[in-house]
Write a structure and sequence with these properties.
mainly alpha; 8 helices; DUF6090; transmembrane; membrane
């Protein structure tokens, strides 16, 4: 094709047809420009098609992550609810008689509510979107803002639970229970690992005679009003923290479902 146009230009020049040559040259330039514009348009169309495909893949992966997130939220709610129930169980005799019932069951309950759980945050697709700058692939600005706000809220809740676990449970509650209570792991590990394919067992390392002695020591310590106040306040606070986590997670689960609906309409 290039040889063909070159031959025409050569013939026009050799025939000294300058006017026609310039007209032809201009026409050839216009043709080249049109060709470039068409090529650019095709390239842009192809890039847009590729971006749309990548956007669709991200949306699909985010939907998967959100479904996983709902499972993680529910698992955390179930754990916190178990803690709150056990706190109520430990406090029930005190609420009825103003006296704690210190026995083997109480020791098991105290051990169980000393546990804490890190809130799982499965969001690999969003992390990739942000780290690579591909968040701009999401063309729907309303949805993009919802997504960003959602994961900012997720990070806030994760930090709240992690901070409460660290500052209260690890640094205050467990030392208080170890100082005034009795640790009995008899049923705790079985309950924590329920549903796992492998069987875990962790029998109480203390024999019945030793447990009886330690329960008496704990009962004697808790007859001191200062120790009683300290112990009861920690038990009540442990229940409060669990219920706060349940409230935060329940509201966040609703947000997650609303975002999933937004994805369906994307």
């Amino acid at each position: 094709m290039i040889k063909f146009f070159r031959k025409i230009r050569y013939n026009l020049m050799s025939e000294n047809k300058t006017g026609r040559y310039f007209k032809y040259a201009i026409g050839e330039i216009i043709l080249v420009v049109i060709g470039i514009l068409v090529a650019l348009q095709i390239n842009n169309w192809n890039n847009n098609r590729m971006d749309a495909k990548r956007e669709a893949n991200y949306i699909k992966n985010i939907e998967r992550d959100l479904n996983n997130q709902i499972s993680a939220i529910q698992a955390q709610i179930d754990f916190e609810a178990k803690i709150a129930d056990n706190c109520l169980l430990a406090l029930q005799p005190y609420n009825e008689t103003n006296q704690l019932r210190i026995d083997t069951t109480f020791a098991i309950v105290i051990t169980s509510i000393s546990a804490r759980r890190t809130f799982n945050n499965p969001n690999p697709s969003y992390i990739e979107l942000i780290s690579t700058g591909n968040i701009e692939l999401l063309k729907n600005e309303t949805f993009k803002n919802k997504l960003i706000n959602y994961y900012e809220e997720l990070e806030r809740i994760e930090n709240v639970i992690d901070s409460n676990n660290s500052s209260f449970i690890d640094q205050e509650f467990i030392p208080a229970m170890n100082k005034l209570g009795v640790v009995n792991t008899g049923l705790v590990w079985e309950d924590l690992f329920r549903g796992y394919s492998r069987t875990f067992s962790s029998p109480n390392p203390l024999n019945a005679k030793n447990m009886e002695r330690l329960i008496k020591i704990s009962s004697k310590l808790l007859k001191n009003e200062e120790n009683e106040l300290f112990f009861i306040n920690h038990l009540a606070s442990r229940e409060t923290y669990a219920k706060i986590h349940i409230l935060l997670l329940t509201e966040f689960k609703i947000q997650t479902k609303e975002l999933l609906k937004a994805i369906k309409n994307y």
